[in-house]
Design goal:
12% strand, five-stranded antiparallel beta sheet, 234 residues, 39% helix, 2 domains
Length: 234
């Protein structure tokens, strides 16, 4: 006599085996996705975002020339192809290219003091705080507060050149706020560095190959009337 098969148990067993195989497949799929998604990139991170361009190359060449002239401060440009389109305020409306002169100036002095070549990632450590007024001008508290994020004590030196001169004499760069004028209705930030003969160079975040402002030499008297404030790292 043939034994009767318990079709209910057989069906249940088949369902359990099928579910196990499906779960195993899903787990493997998830594991494979995780492994693929989080694998280390084979290229430098910045290469995934931007390619170097003429402005990047200009800044590099200018930095090498400044070093040859005894100024160990890199030129960072707000128009650098690697980050010019990056948004920098919490309203997501301002970019490095249009409003980033203070950011680029901060990167220059931090690089001098800390010996670090800052790049794309540092902008995220400076951005998205309440640093901008409604008209797009940066609040001066930016320098002191942003400096603290990098372990740097930045002092507001006021508007007199004499307060900045002691830093410049020791070879340290100083951030300046240029006054708005007829040609430029917005205040603009840049970095001053002193040459061995006592003259000044302006490292301008809006410099370009047609201007090459970093090559020009100024006496303090030629600049002081155009500057409304100074900042330096202590």
């Amino acid at each position: 006599m043939k034994k009767k098969r318990n079709w209910g148990l057989i069906a249940l067993g088949g369902l359990m085996i099928g579910s196990g195989l499906l779960g195993f497949g899903v787990r493997n799929a998830i594991h494979s996705y995780d492994t693929y998604s989080y694998s280390e990139p084979t290229l430098p991170v910045e290469d995934y975002y931007y390619e170097d361009g003429p402005t990047t190359e200009f800044a590099y060449r200018a930095t090498q020339q400044l070093k040859a002239d005894g100024i160990n401060v890199p030129l960072y440009l707000q128009t650098d192809e690697r980050w010019k389109d990056e948004l920098i305020d919490y309203t997501y409306s301002l970019t490095m290219e249009t409003n980033g002169s203070a950011f680029a100036s901060m990167m220059m002095v931090l690089s001098y003091w800390q010996g670090i070549d800052y790049d794309y990632d540092v902008i995220y450590d400076l951005a998205f705080e309440d640093y901008f007024s409604s008209d797009g001008t940066i609040k001066w508290k930016f320098f002191e507060q942003a400096g603290e994020n990098f372990g740097a004590s930045i002092s507001n030196l006021g508007y007199k050149y004499e307060a900045a001169e002691k830093y410049l004499k020791n070879g340290a760069p100083v951030i300046v706020a240029f006054k708005a004028n007829e040609a430029d209705t917005n205040e603009h930030f840049a970095v001053l560095a002193r040459t061995k003969d006592g003259n000044l160079r302006v490292l301008d975040p809006l410099d370009n190959p047609d201007i090459e402002r970093y090559k020009k030499v100024y006496t303090p008297a030629e600049l002081t009337d155009t500057i409304q404030n100074y900042w330096a790292i202590n």
